[in-house]
Amino acid sequence: MASSSRRRIPEFELVMLGGGGVGKSAITIQFMQSRFEVNWDPTIEDTYRKTAVVDRVEAMLAITDTAGQEEYRLMRPGYLRSAQGFLLVYDITSRQSFNEVNKFHEEILQTKDLATYPAVVLLGNKVDLADRRAVRTSEGEELARRFKCQFMECSAKFRENIDEAFHSVVRAVRKYNHKSILDRTADLLAGEDGPERPHYGEEEHKGGCCLIS
């Protein structure tokens, strides 16, 4: 008789965010299928599922690849509310795409109603086009400090830092969830009359940043 106590793999809802043409779909396809998709129609919404082993622990990744174009902005709050982690992508050859990252990050904070949200990886794509670079690595690092999130650069074409980016956001979600559980447990132990503890990400409402991991 089959066992009724099969171990459940924890699921992580992740969302790809960034302007149109920055390579969100190419990054996702490279992670999912280990291939570089050259000709890809603009995305409205695609969803993918993949089991990954992160730090020797299995995780089910449910990835939503979203449209970056402004006309699809009203669709995004639904994805953002349920998502646990975000890959915030820009194109290192496009100053405009780097500037647009701020509005996507602000949408995350507004939807989550938090001052900071650490389960984010800021990702500068297309390092294979370094001769056309318009955004310095140091600028990406500085923006990640303001966002209080992790940062790396990648190449969807050559699969550079692709697995690392997804694994990093899973780690960030795990850390965030663990810290939230500890805070709630401490509140329960303190009792109703105990001192109120700030929850992770809510210490400063709408201000401040975190270090790059």
UniProtKB/TrEMBL annotation:
Q: What is its EC number?
A: 3.6.5.2
UniProtKB keywords? Cell membrane, GTP-binding, Hydrolase, Membrane, Nucleotide-binding
Q: Which SUPFAM superfamilies match?
A: P-loop containing nucleoside triphosphate hydrolases (SSF52540)
- Please state the protein's primary subcellular location: membrane
Class of the enzyme per the UniProt entry, highest EC level: hydrolase
Q: Name one Pfam family in it.
A: Ras
Membrane topology of the entry: Lipid-anchor
Q: Which Gene Ontology cellular-component terms appear in the entry?
A: plasma membrane
A GO BP entry is: signal transduction
GO MF, one example: GTP binding
Q: InterPro entries of this UniProt entry?
A: P-loop_NTPase, Small_GTP-bd, Small_GTPase, Small_GTPase_Ras-type
User: According to its UniProt record, where is this protein located?
Assistant: Cell membrane
NCBIfam families given in the database record: small_GTP (TIGR00231)
Protein's UniProt name: small monomeric GTPase
